[in-house]
Design a protein that fits this description.
The protein is mainly alpha-helical. Helix content is 51%, strand content 5%. The protein is built from seven helices and two strands; from the N terminus they run αααββαααα. A two-stranded antiparallel sheet has the order 1-2. β1 and β2 form a beta hairpin. α1 packs across α2, α1 crosses α3 and α4 packs across α5. This is Transcriptional regulator, BadM/Rrf2 family.
């Protein structure tokens, strides 16, 4: 799986907003978001347009303006952010996994693609911004992280 720069930047920026919400500091400007995580400002503006359309963030204009989370951070999953900026979690040649079909020896391949999507959902939808920000990761994620080869390239 390839995690795009859009997803990486969006999650990092949303974590900054989650931290701001936790500290009660109010909206955060695009400039502050870009500076804190060294993200390209113009790219971040486009990402935040998607996040706003997905109703994950609110924007406020003016000198004290910026962006804030639209819902409590415990109610926004990493999967929500992923979908807002990159679309579905899993696609096969532009189709959803359950929409694929193959003949012959590959006839069971859709089952594998659906299982891959289900595992992505478990991890990404099961992890809130709050859990990621605080490091209080859900138990299924902690189990995956402690697998003997979890941190090894293959």
């Amino acid at each position: 799986m390839d995690i795009s720069a859009r997803v990486d930047y969006a999650v990092r920026a949303m974590l900054i907003l989650a931290e701001a919400a936790a500290s009660g500091s109010g909206p955060v400007s695009i400039e502050a978001l870009a500076t804190e995580q060294e993200l390209p400002r113009k790219f971040l503006e486009a990402i935040f347009a998607d996040l706003r359309r997905a109703e994950l963030v609110l924007s406020r204009r003016g000198a004290l303006g910026g962006y804030a989370l639209a819902r409590p951070q415990r109610e926004i999953s990493v999967g929500d952010v992923f979908r807002a900026v990159d679309g579905p979690l899993a696609e096969v040649r532009g189709l959803r996994p359950h929409e694929t079909s193959y003949a012959g020896v590959a006839q069971h391949l859709p089952s594998l693609w659906v299982a891959v999507r289900a595992s992505l959902r478990e991890v990404l939808d099961g992890t809130s911004l709050e859990a990621l920000r605080t490091g209080a990761l859900p138990e299924p994620l902690q189990q995956l992280l402690t697998a003997p080869d979890a941190w090894r390239n293959r």
